[in-house]
Design a protein that fits this description.
- The structure is a single chain.
- By secondary structure, this protein is α/β, with parallel strands linked by helices.
- The chain has one domain: Rossmann fold (3-Layer(aba) Sandwich), CATH 3.40.50.
- Helices cover 43% and strands 21% of the residues.
- Strands 3-2-4-5-1-6-7 form a seven-stranded mixed sheet, sandwiched between helices.
- It starts with a strand and ends with a strand.
Length: 175
């Protein structure tokens, strides 16, 4: 099984690059974003991603972030998860972590995700934001997100056969 982690900053081209890795046939696209009916701009971004997907792809919207690890543990074929940062955001939301809630469920779910990636029978492509190249965020929530996503990215990279970083639309192969 090939497991590829595609990292990059905002608008780096990471999603398009990840989609291109699987564009030659059927795949399952796991969308992690939650639709907010009150946010037209966010809904537009989600719609743009949907329009880009090939006809042969199946889209799965799990809704509940707890469903991703078991989904990947039982998946086969070719699976793209876009993206890990929005999945983590939903976990942090559900744990009320932004307000100082318990991080244990977040750490548990991240561990479950890393294990599922490591044992999945599917060829996986995971998209995530690279957050370790900027300044230390000025807010507690910014530091929380950066620290949690950085640790999760490292755990996922440890279980992936390939790791690619997108910078200005250019893929840099790390592994």
């Amino acid at each position: 099984m090939r497991r590829t982690l595609v990292l990059g900053g905002a608008r780096s081209g990471k999603s398009a690059h990840a989609e291109g890795l699987l564009s030659d046939g059927p795949a399952t696209y796991v969308a992690t974003a939650r639709l907010d009916a009150d946010d037209a701009e966010w809904a537009g971004r989600i719609e743009a991603h949907k329009r880009r997907r090939p006809e042969a792809w199946r889209t799965v919207e799990l809704g509940d972030p707890a469903k991703l690890p078991p989904f990947l543990a039982n998946a086969d074929g070719r699976v793209l998860v876009d993206d890990i940062a929005t999945w983590l955001t939903a976990l942090l939301d559900d744990a009320a972590a932004w307000e100082g809630g318990d991080l244990d469920p977040v750490h548990q779910a991240c561990g479950e995700l890393a294990r599922a990636v490591g044992t999945s029978r599917a060829d996986l492509v995971l998209v995530s934001a690279e957050v370790g190249l900027g300044v230390v965020p000025a807010t507690r929530s910014g530091r929380l997100f950066r620290d949690q996503l950085g640790a999760l990215n490292a755990a996922l990279a440890d279980r992936c056969t390939d790791v690619v970083l997108l910078v200005a639309g250019i893929p840099l192969r790390l592994r």
